[in-house]
Design goal:
four-stranded mixed sheet, 11 strands, 11 helices, alpha/beta, TIM Barrel, 38% helix, five-stranded parallel sheet
Amino acid sequence: MLLVNSFDVEPWWTSTPPCVDPADWGGMPDRSAGPMAEYLDLCDEAGVKSTFFFIGWYAKTFPERVREVVARGHEVGCHSLLHEDVSTQTTAEFRETTLTARQIIEDAAGVAVEAYRAPSFSFPPARSRELLTELAGMGFRVDSSITTAGRVYGGGHSAEQYPRPMHLGESLGIDIFEVPVPGVRIAGRDLTVFGGGYFRLAPGPLLNHLARREQYQVLYLHPHDFDPDLPPLPNSGTVSQLRRKLSIGDIRRKLLDLYASADVKTCGELATAAA
């Protein structure tokens, strides 16, 4: 299986819609330093690299962590400014917040940022062409905001249109390389089993089976996925609380087994190889 390795770096309280007003973020306790270090060490142990998608606020607040990611040989991408729901933004708002976030991340990283991923994959199918065109116009070389799995705030994109990592010049006339997140068909539904809460809840044997069955998948995790003592998510319901807290098995063991059984690449590596 070709496995695209990625990590979305955001505070543990980010959600769609937001459960904490950005004006109050400065007073929230940071819990990401340990999980970030743990994930970096796991990548080193497995001998793999990852694409780290940072939100702008995080890069401005913890620039030293962005620099460490770069120093350890990983890629840096943009994950919005404040984890905005792109589906609710106008085109102008999307452009403004994305450009601001990228500049902040580049200032912290000291390298160009050429990859983008929308928070919660919130590219509605009806606007995906427009938004991808905007990204290309801003100079982004790679996007990973498209998922064929159904989601509340995005997703449900055509698997025929986005079957694999590919440059969109021929199919859509857009100068950008797309790394779509495919769903896995389980019990009649397409689920993003290799990401976030789904990955935490999936038993190791199931993941190993899927790694043998699937030809291509995208792994996307977050710092809070490595925090077993995560506080309750503020101002959120029971389902949201459970999604953040529940897990099956050891996520570290799952990751190492998966890395050992897959051909692991970053988003940028795939784009460069296809150029």
